Structures are given as structure tokens and as C-alpha cells.
Amino acid sequence: MPCDAATVTTKKATIKDVAREAKVSVASVSRALNGQGGVTAETLDRIRVAAKRLRYIPDNAARSLITRRTHTIGALLPDLYGEFFSELIRGIDLAARARGLQLLVSSSHDGVEDAANAMRAMQGRVDGMLILSPWVDADFLQANLPEDVPTVLMNSPLDADGWSVLNIDNRGGAYAMVQHLLTTAGHADVALISGPGSNYDSQQRELGYREAMATFASRVPLNIVQGNFTEQSGYEAGRAILAQSPRPRAVFAANDMMALGCLYAFKEAGLRVPQDIALAGFDDIPIARYLSPSLSTVSVHIAELGRSALERLAALLDGHAQSTTSDTLGCAVVIRETCGSSRDDASPKNPYQPKSPTDV
Amino acid sequence: MPCDAATVTTKKATIKDVAREAKVSVASVSRALNGQGGVTAETLDRIRVAAKRLRYIPDNAARSLITRRTHTIGALLPDLYGEFFSELIRGIDLAARARGLQLLVSSSHDGVEDAANAMRAMQGRVDGMLILSPWVDADFLQANLPEDVPTVLMNSPLDADGWSVLNIDNRGGAYAMVQHLLTTAGHADVALISGPGSNYDSQQRELGYREAMATFASRVPLNIVQGNFTEQSGYEAGRAILAQSPRPRAVFAANDMMALGCLYAFKEAGLRVPQDIALAGFDDIPIARYLSPSLSTVSVHIAELGRSALERLAALLDGHAQSTTSDTLGCAVVIRETCGSSRDDASPKNPYQPKSPTDV
DNA sequence: GGCGCCAACGTAAACGTTTTCATGAAACCT
DNA sequence: AGGTTTCATGAAAACGTTTACGTTGGCGCC
Q1: A21-30, A72-81, A327-336: the lowest-pLDDT one
Q2: For residue B274, cis peptide bond before it (omega within 30 degrees of 0)
Q3: How many domains is chain B partitioned into structurally?
Q4: Residue ranges making up the domain that contains B162
Q5: Which of A237, A343, B220, B258 is most buried (CB neighbours < 10 A)?
Q6: Cβ-contact A304, A166 below 8 angstroms
Q7: How far is the CA of A312 from the C1' of C15 (A)?
Q8: Partner residue opposite A86 with nearest CB, options B86, B94, B358
Q9: Inter-chain touch A61–B83, beta carbons under 8 Å
Q10: A82 vs B57, B125, B356: nearest CB
């Protein structure tokens, strides 16, 4: 019995090879390697060394054919950019690894048809799905979601139509920021630069603005300038606001990119921020803290969204949870310089809290 | 024969069900649905409607058990942050979709053991692998890479040890930038803020600096301050450089985050950039263009790296390519304000080129 | 009209696991 | 001692495909 590496056949070793090598049946090998007991310590040992010698690795296809489990979850994401995407994946991936699950990613498709195809392609490859997509609605899911694949939706308008959904508290975040501008920072009125009307996040943020205005500045008329989440549209909205008279005391942009454009418009006009006009955004993109003045904004814990979505899905897979609950993840108001709060510049600017421990 | 949706059984339909429904054998169903011919047009039709009626979707596990193909490729990535990660995945994903391949992602593991586990977990689940990881070296691959899984390495020091590798031209990019600082911008000497010595990118960038200095400023002594890619270390390096006398005319930071910290140090000291001292970075992170003054840097096309890595892998899978070639992707020098080129401020600042068409 | 050929189709064997069930031996209890 | 329980083990049936190989039948050709 030579024990050289040379004796290892070139073909992939199967469970039968291990069984022959260890002089037991395939059943025993399966039991031993899966640690289900029912096998003597010494035979277990013999099987272990045989498996190691042959470099045996179970075939996942065969295994999941009979088990009906793939230990893989699919993530269906839209065409996302930058920080948001990577943080989301990071949150999901970390949680998945902790549970021994693999992650099948399908991102960067735009269009309903594209999303539907991606979904079908995952059939039978995954035990469950995580979906974040602007194109999924009830009908879409009904039509394309395979019968019995547990699914949790992220940031979806579908509240409790029998789906498990996990939302970001866009409304609450916007509300809190506008409240801060009106009360703590003491600005008399706040204008909104809104996002595209078709966007769910945009709608919710506008709702938060309206509610906060109704509560804390009920006599002040609403002042909404339409944008579309791009920096360019923020710039234009900023100029439109400058043309207003009287000019609002503060501006809440529905996302940071628009706030950025707006800030340029203000600077260009020679206004001081926040002394002449205050500004706040939403998202807390990495750039926000590096602007001068640094941008007050609303921070959402994206990795946390991914993590808890996966936890929820895992719970569904284990049957520990009902598939119909709906939760919301909180946001945090981040006060920096542009919003002109009373505590402005109380502490010296400290830019040294790098977001990225590693690089490249 | 009722044709209602109600007749669709609750269990998942198999090929046998379709066969029974269409009154043919399973073999014919397989042939028909895979479009291999050997079936009449009318039977093909009958099978098609039967399959649609039963919502039949082939079981991937069973299919790949016999086919030995998963149509999935695995991506093994380190604990990456932000733009780099998302762009890389985007490039890979787009190319994969175009080829009908699925993407199994395993990111955010740090440590050799972790990476090895991730690799083993992909056994039999993927047809090939894309690997970008600081912890893989020849030994690691030898020990953990399954026998016959085609693999392409990204950004790896392993040049042509029989592996297919795709590199970023860190050296060339650094060389070009330092050359620009020395010649076009006309600075007499350039100091380097280097990255961690253990990092491959860091080493290559330093090499580029050394070569450019040797070529264009051979009489000037090298001036290298050690950093570790963090903003904090850049800040400290900046202060160290300020303490030098004579002070260098220009500084090349081995990545943008360090350039950022360095810029703060200069501003803090009351220096004007680039008039008093010039600065350049590497990576072209999104923040770079928004700084004031905006940061000159070296841009690498990350999505392109991902895309061509996958193309290469796909070629390997189809047997169209040899598995041992080694390629390098170019970088682009991006001239902005901080490097004090002669064309400085020639054109008005135009910040409206948003990177992200969509948001959230 | 018999012969062979080809296209359409069916039968059955793989693929590599897990799992149920049967079998025998050993240990335990009265 | 005899019966009963436990326990390690093996044989074999699944799981849902693809595919090599037969088996038809029809058709053209001599």
C-alpha cells in the first residue's frame, strides 16, 4: 500500500472511493463525514484519513439534489453604485458566512425583464432570496417568484402584502432632520429639494418633510423644489431657491448629491453656509464629511440592512419566523457644519476617522 | 382536462410531470427544451405548452450533477471597501451576465485560514474562480485550489508561475504621475508618502516613483516617508514633510486617502496648494474631485479589471486560451488642481459630472 | 415488394450523494 | 439463560437530469 501523493488518482474522488479505501460502505462514510454519529470512533478515524488521503470533497450538486438544500442564498440587486452597494453586500456576506451560507449575487440589471431573467436563473440554485429592486412589485413577484422560495424584500413599498420586508426609515430620518433644522437649529422655514417622484425613497423622505413641517412650522407654507437625485439637479434647485424672495432660511435636500450641487450654487452666489442659509442632505455619503463646510446629513446603516435582511431570511429558512412581518431600520441624524445648529463649531473639526481601514 | 392554474400541483414540477402531461418520454422533453433537435415541431410545441402550464423549471442540481457544469463562477475577494469593491463586482457581474454565468461571491474574509475555507466552500459549486486576495501565494493555491478549476488571479504578485494573472499597472501609473510632476508641472523634487511595505500595490507604486526619479531627477536624493494607506498616516507624513528643510516642492502620496490627510496637514500649516507645495495621490476615489483644491491622482479602471478577468476566465472555460498568460491593465493620470500643472485653472471648475447616475 | 436508412422517440443507465430499512452482534435486564 | 434493547453497519432506493443506445415506423430506392 503506497501512501504517496502519486497514488491519488487524477479524477475527482467520490464517496465510493473513500468507502473502498476505508473498507466500509458509502453509508458509513456519509454518516462519518457529516458527523451524525452511528459510527465507531475507530472507523470514523479510518474514514477520515482515507478521505484526506484521497482529497475527497463531497459533490455539492449531488448532495443538494437529494437534500433539497443548496446552502446558498441569492441577492437580487439593481444597478447600484459605490458605497451603498459595497456596504450592503458586506453586511449580507458577513452574516451569510457566519451561518455557513454562500452568496449568489446578481446585480446591475436594469429593466423589469432583466430582473425577471435574473430571478429565473436562480431557480433551484438558492434556498432563499434577498431582493432590493425598484422594479419588483406584487405582480412581478407573483409572476416570477418560484413557489416556495423564502424571500425577504429590502426597501420595498410592498408593506405586508404577505411578504417579508425590511425597510429603511426614510420618513423618520427626514422628519428628524427637518425637526432639527426647525427647532434645535432654530431656522424659521425649511425648503425641500425633492427626489424623483417615482422613487420610493424619495416619496418617503418628502413625506417626512411634510410631517415635520406640519408639526413644527404649521403656519409656514411648504416650499418644494423638484430634483431628481443628481448633483446637477441639486445645483439647479439651489439656483431656483436663490431666486425666491423671501429666500428660505434652510434647505433640506432629499439626498447628498443634490445637497452637493446646491452647496455649489450657494457658494457661487457668495452666500455663507450656514450663516446665510443652512443646508442638510440625506445618505451620509463619504464625501459629506470632507466638504467645507462639512455636510449635515442623515446616515443609514446600510451594512446593518444587509445583515438583518439575511438574518431574517435565515430565520425563515429554519422555520423560526413567519414570512409576513415587516420591519424598519432606523436612521441617524448626523450634525456637521452646514445645518447651522447652535453647537456649530463647538468642537474643532476632526477629519481623522477614516471610513476605510484598508485600501485597494 | 381542466386547464386551470388550480390543477398545477403544489409540489415542484419535474421533467417527468412534463413528460406525462405532453404524453412523451422524459428524453424527448429534455431534448426539446434544450433545443437539440430530434423532435417534431408539433411535439416540441406540445412539450412547450406542457412545461409552461406546469411552470416547469429544470433542477440545476440534477442537471449539473450529470453535466459537470454549474454555469457559475466564484469570486474570492478580500475585505474590500467602497468604490473599489462595487466597481469590481459590477465589471465582473456585467461580463458574467453577458455570458449567461452566475456569480458566487465570497468577500470580506481576512486571514489566510478564512480565505482557504471560503475556497473550499466553493468546491463543486463553480466552474472557475476569480481571485483577488492579498493572502494567496503560490503555496496557498497549490494547497487549496481544487485540481481542475480554472482560475484567474487579479492583482497578484504571482507573475507567470503557471497561473493566469491580470494586474493593474501600479508601477506605470506612479511613474507617469511622478514624471508629470517633475517635467510638465516642473517641480524640482518630489517626495513619496509610501504605503505599507507588505502591500503589493504599495511596493509597485514605490517602484514607479523610484524609476521616475531616477530618470527625470537623477541628481535629486530620494525622499520617502513611510505611511500605511490610512488618512491618519498621511496626515502624519504631511507634518513630517513640513518639518523637513529644505521642504520638497511636490509630494506624491501612494494613495488618495493619505493624500487627503496630507492635504489637511498642509492647510493646517497655512500652506497654499499647489502654489507652495504640490500634491498628488493614487486611486481616484470619488472624493478626490470634490476636494478644494481638487486632487490630482491616478485613476484605475476597476470595472474593466473585473470585466476582462471574467472574459479571460470564460475563455479558459471554453478552452480558447492558455492558462498561463499574464496581462496588465493601464492607469490614467488625472490632472486636477493640487499638482500645480502649467494648465492650472485654465478651464473653470466644473463639478457637474456625477459619478452615480442613480442613487440609493 | 423487399431492402435498408433515417428521423423520431423511448428505455434505461449513469451522475454522487443521503437516508431508510434490514441485519447481525453485543450488551443489558430479569 | 433467554429475551429485549441498543447500536454499528451495509444494501438499496431515492433525488431529477442527460445521454447512449435501442426500437419503431415511414420512406425512398433498386
Answers
A1: A72-81
A2: yes
A3: 3
A4: 71-167+302-329
A5: B258
A6: no
A7: 35
A8: B86
A9: no
A10: B356
A148 vs B70: CB contact, 8 Å cut-off?
Answer: no
Mutate to test the interface with B, among A64, A291, A292, A360 (most CBs of B within 10 A): A360
Residue B340 lies in a domain: no
Residues B88 and B16 in one domain: no
| pLDDT band at residue A6 using 50, 70 and 90 as cut-offs | very low
B66 touches strand C (CB under 7 A): yes
Alpha helices in chain B (DSSP H): 15-22, 26-33, 41-54, 60-67, 82-98, 112-121, 138-144, 170-182, 200-216, 231-242, 256-268, 302-317
| Residues A251 and A224 occupy one common structural domain | yes
Same domain for A273 and A223, yes or no, is yes
CB contact under 8 A, A201 and B292: no
Q: Is B148 a residue whose pLDDT tops 90?
A: no
Residue B77 sits in a domain whose CATH number is 3.40.50.2300
A118 is written with which cell numbers?
A: 435574473
In this structure, are residues A247 and A241 in contact, taking their beta carbons and an 8 Å threshold?
yes
A189 occurs within a structural domain: yes
Is the pLDDT at A360 greater than 70, yes or no? Answer: no
Span B273-299, pLDDT tens digits? 999 999 999 999 888 988 889 999 999
Tell me the chain B residues in contact with residue A106 when contact means C-beta distances shorter than 8 Å.
93, 97, 102-103
> Taking 70 as the threshold, does the pLDDT of residue A1 lie above it?
no
**In the structure grid, which three cell numbers stand for residue A331, read together?**
436612521
Neighbours of B347 (CB within 10 A): 7
What is the per-residue pLDDT across A107-165, written as a single tens digit (0 to 9) for each? Answer: 878 788 888 888 888 877 899 999 998 777 777 777 777 667 899 999 888 765 678 89
Interatomic separation, CA of residue A40 and C1' of nucleotide C26, rounded (Å): 14
Q: Which whole number is the average pLDDT over A33-39?
A: 87
- The residue type found at B270 is G
Q: Is B355 a domain residue?
A: no
Residue B115 maps to a domain: yes
Same domain, A179 and A244: yes
For residues A163 and A279, membership in a common domain is answered with: no
Is the per-residue pLDDT at B146 higher than 60? yes
